[in-house]
TrEMBL record:
<dbReference type="Pfam" id="PF01266">
    <property type="entry name" value="DAO"/>
</dbReference>
<feature type="domain" description="FAD dependent oxidoreductase">
    <location>
        <begin position="13"/>
        <end position="323"/>
    </location>
</feature>
<dbReference type="InterPro" id="IPR036188">
    <property type="entry name" value="FAD/NAD-bd_sf"/>
</dbReference>
<keyword id="KW-1133">Transmembrane helix</keyword>
<keyword id="KW-0472">Membrane</keyword>
<feature type="transmembrane region" description="Helical">
    <location>
        <begin position="12"/>
        <end position="30"/>
    </location>
</feature>
<dbReference type="GO" id="GO:0005739">
    <property type="term" value="C:mitochondrion"/>
</dbReference>
<keyword id="KW-0812">Transmembrane</keyword>
<dbReference type="InterPro" id="IPR006076">
    <property type="entry name" value="FAD-dep_OxRdtase"/>
</dbReference>
<protein>
    <recommendedName>
        <fullName>FAD dependent oxidoreductase domain-containing protein</fullName>
    </recommendedName>
</protein>
Amino acid sequence: MPNEVKLPGKAEIIIIGGGIVGCSIAYHLASKKIKNVVLVEQDNWPEPGGSTSHASDFIFPIDHSELMANLSQYGVEFYSNLKFNGKPCYEMVGGIELARTENRLRELRRKVESGKSWGIDAELISVEEAQEAFPFLDKDPIRGAMWTPTAGVATRSTDAAQAMVQEAKRCGSLQLFDNTEVLDVIVEDNKVCGVHTSRGFIQSNLVISAAGVWGPLIGKMAGISIPLAPMHHQLVHTGNVPELEGAKSQIEWPVLRDQDRSMYVRQEFDTWEIGSYNHPPMITDANDIQPQDETKYSPTMMPFTPEHFEVAMASIIEVMPILEHAPFQFGFN
Ligand SMILES: Cc1cc2nc3c(=O)[nH]c(=O)nc-3n(C[C@H](O)[C@H](O)[C@H](O)COP(=O)(O)OP(=O)(O)OC[C@H]3O[C@@H](n4cnc5c(N)ncnc54)[C@H](O)[C@@H]3O)c2cc1C
């Protein structure tokens, strides 16, 4: 659908990108009463082609970095209070991080202590307690686990993004233009002065790039080198499984993390989502990402390479044997 509203010639702040980060920036600027913020998104919004639309959406609040832990905990509280269509944007189902080795158990012990000192609840639990919380586990490969009660899932992150944009618009702070691609960032005397878009020029002295994996391309437009590269991360959705039959909501069981194998599993109604970094590094050049209308699902969903998932699948079956019988429905890199 062509966007009929005329682009403003000037903005206090321009945000490039309408994923979860751009929408969150818009919300938080509105909460600081900043007016005349313009968000430009190259794709159809609210389902643009960035990572946000197909993320697993979970939050494990404790990290070894205090900054990251505080940010994650803020996310837990923020999404719990944010509502989209009257429903909270966060399901606090809890999270289990497994330890397959004594070293991992020591690491989890450190995490529990860090969490406590930063005011985030967590505890080490026995193998039996882990199995009680998540009965699909096999006890044999596990030495223990960490239980984080406030871990959970943003349901869904695109709903949260819409809720934030609605609020920023309600405050009279934000105008959002989708199908509007930033083609160039204009810098004069080392100062940004605006962006050229597919629908015209917008003048501004403050431009925020929230362009996700396209970030290096936006940086290049502004003459800045951003040394980041988009990395593949495999995600597989199973078909319906009997153990989750009758699920009443998107997620009822805790999210499972198996850091010893760089993997995670979460429920999605009566299916499982299995995420894996347990494969050789695969990089895509940001220049090679196709436009939204030229891709089947999303520009950032690359074709699934099953050969990179074999080892991962065998690993996760060790701790969740029930997955051996789960039908493969869909996967992507
Ligand atoms: C399979 C998978 C699972 C994940 N699971 C989780 C998880 O469970 N928990 C978690 O916290 N994170 C998860 N992530 C990571 C998370 O999805 C990302 O960190 C997050 O979505 C990034 O949001 P973003 O707004 O920065 O980027 P994006 O969502 O990619 O948004 C960037 C936007 O910028 C727009 N854009 C780019 N260039 C331009 C331009 N020139 N002009 C205008 N617009 C432009 C794009 O169209 C896009 O909409 C996962 C990621 C993947 C791939």
